[in-house]
Amino acid sequence: MSNGGVSDLTVAVVGLGYVGLPTALALTDAGAKVIGIDSSQDRLRAIARGAVDLLPVHHAQLACAVVGDGFRLTSDATAVTAADAVVVCVPTPVDARREPDLTALSAACASVVEHAVAGQLIVLTSTSYVGTTRDLLTEPLKARGFTVDEDVYVAFAPERIDPGNERHTPERTPRLVGGAGPNSARAAAALLAPTASEIRTVDTPETAEMAKLWENTYRAVNIALANELADACQALGLAPVPVIEAAATKPYGFMPFYPGPGVGGHCIPCDPHYLLWQLREVRQQAPLVAAALTANTDRPARMTERALELLSRAAVPADGARVLLIGVAYKEGVADVRESPALEMLARLEAAGADVSYADPLVPSVTVAGRVLHHVADPHTRPWDLVVLHTVHPVHDLSWLADAPRVLDTRQRGARVRAEVTA
């Protein structure tokens, strides 16, 4: 590693998804020469033409980067040999059984280790189990003959990206760095300083790995609790959101979480399962976490039951009922449908015989039970037996719902639309 600033470095970013691309752009903006590596040619072409889901500030960075000479895109994994530092940002999903799927991460780390050169810094950012950095980077590098923290440097620095949230861009968010030794920690902190509001160094990669799992497990458990207490409010004839807002006036010991149709995206539905998977290996029980994850997984089915109940109470047969979902992305302001509860709800409603459609201007099409559905651009012109509010993007105009016969607000924030919302 160079003793100069980031502008003296060539950095390879492996994986150009929701984490890797903003990281690459931040490093480019700081003056580094960046080699963006991704195995998908489609992804590389989309990046080159700017057809990717980014915040406006990052789109502006991308527009500058692709016309400059400091940002190169390639699918050639051997390009890491030309880099002073390598940042690994590949996905860590779960499979159909909610077990960790380490395929992409293992392959990426194996390739980086194979092509590592002396003096290089390797930083892993992908969320995984405690010990991943050791198992996939440190030990394989030692097996190649390197002395870690002396002639190669290794660290884990978990990503902290909230897609679609302009208040919490990575550059405005503190970041953790756990080095495989003091030299590794210093090198990784210096590299990542331009990508975060501050760098907090912890004693080991394992501490940083567990911190990331703790963060997202905390959120998963509190989402499950918010949904459960929202159901309790309804059973008692109360609207949940005013209760939450009242509780949130307490300036300590409380953080508001809001009910919804389930959890989606790249983190909350996946990361806590890495923790449970590892705890099972050491025969450690975590019943509260396990129950919360089960509740979150079951939530889309519960929301589907409520939709069918609304139709039944109105004497509208589910078979042939015209049902529209507003928003299929997993959260507001993004085009990401990974693990979105909407996909399960659409599939379950269709299995019940409903004629399902969706309106989401950020998502042109989705595949449900093998059938491709397309965004309905003019939902206000069609008759619906039921409209389900799943994800309300800022671009949505929902004033027309005042004339809809039935609306199910899965997030129970009916005050946001001029309609009688039943949940």
Automatic annotation (TrEMBL):
Record-linked Gene3D superfamilies: NAD(P)-binding Rossmann-like Domain
A Pfam family that the UniProt record links to this protein: UDPG_MGDP_dh_C
This protein's UniProt keywords: NAD, Oxidoreductase
Region annotation (Disordered) ranges: 161-180
UDP-glucose/GDP-mannose dehydrogenase C-terminal domain sequence ranges: 324-410
Species: Streptomyces lancefieldiae
Biased composition (Basic and acidic residues): 161-174
Highest taxon listed in the record's lineage: Bacteria
Family statement drawn from the similarity comment of this UniProt entry: Belongs to the UDP-glucose/GDP-mannose dehydrogenase family.
InterPro entries registered for this protein in UniProt: 6-PGluconate_DH-like_C_sf, NAD(P)-bd_dom_sf, UDP-Glc/GDP-Man, UDP-Glc/GDP-Man_DH_C, UDP-Glc/GDP-Man_DH_C_sf, UDP-Glc/GDP-Man_DH_dimer, UDP-Glc/GDP-Man_DH_N, UDP_ManNAc/GlcNAc_DH
Protein name, UniProt field: Nucleotide sugar dehydrogenase
SUPFAM superfamilies hit by this protein: 6-phosphogluconate dehydrogenase C-terminal domain-like, NAD(P)-binding Rossmann-fold domains, UDP-glucose/GDP-mannose dehydrogenase C-terminal domain
